[in-house]
Every structure is written in structure tokens, then in C-alpha cells.
Amino acid sequence: MKIPVKLDYSCRILSELARHYDGGEPVRIDDLAQVESVPANFLAQILGELKNAKLVVSRRGVQGGFLLARAPDQITLFDIVQAIEGDLMELSGNFDGKSGRKMKQIWNDIRAAAVTRARAYTLEAMAAKVEVEMYYI
Description:
Layout: H1 5-19, H2 29-36, H3 40-52, E1 56-59, E2 65-68, H4 77-85, H5 100-120, H6 123-136
Antiparallel strand pairs: 1-2
Helix pairs in contact: 1-2, 1-4, 1-6
């Protein structure tokens, strides 16, 4: 399976915002773009989608920027996937034929496991993992 670039960038940007959550200060889009090496124009589009999904809020002005809309332990990987990609592992296609129904059941089982895992993985856990790995670099 391919992880879309937009989803990867979203997770990275939200992890960065999670690291700034306790300070309560917004992070400027230029700073986010530089830290995560994300093109600023693409980042603006991503942040717009995350704002529409109520995962981030923006503040205007010289001291403006973006903040998480809720605590990092209240945002899951599932929330992020839903905001950026829609349904996680959406099944599409034709399940007719000799093995179609059985394959659909298998894919549904895999999807259910992925959804369960994505709902269990919080942004707080992702940010902590990234922070630990960055410390050892």
C-alpha cells in the first residue's frame, strides 16, 4: 500500500504542532515548512484541510500561526486519515464472481484491524516517538 505524501506531511506537521502544544503559542507556517521540508504552498493547502476537519486552529496577525484544536492525546491517526484521505482503506470495485464475496470479507477484516490500530495511535504517541528518535540522531 502507498501512503499518500499529503497524509505523511499531515502527520509530520501535526506532530510538530503537538510538540508545541503545551506552550500555547501558534507556529508560523514558514517555520513548519522549514522544519519539515514541506513546500509552503502545499502546506497551506494541507493546513486548510486540517482546519476544516477541526484538527487545527489558526490565529491571524504578526504573532499568528497554527495550533492544535485539541490536546494531542485526543487526536488519533484515524482522525488524520479521515481529514486528509476520507475513509481508511475504502473498498471499491467489483466483488462478484466465484471468490468475490470471500475476498470482500478478507479486505473488510484487514480494514477493521487497520481502523482499530489507527484509532489507538494518538498524535501524542506519534510526537513522542519522533522526539525520541530526533534526540538520538
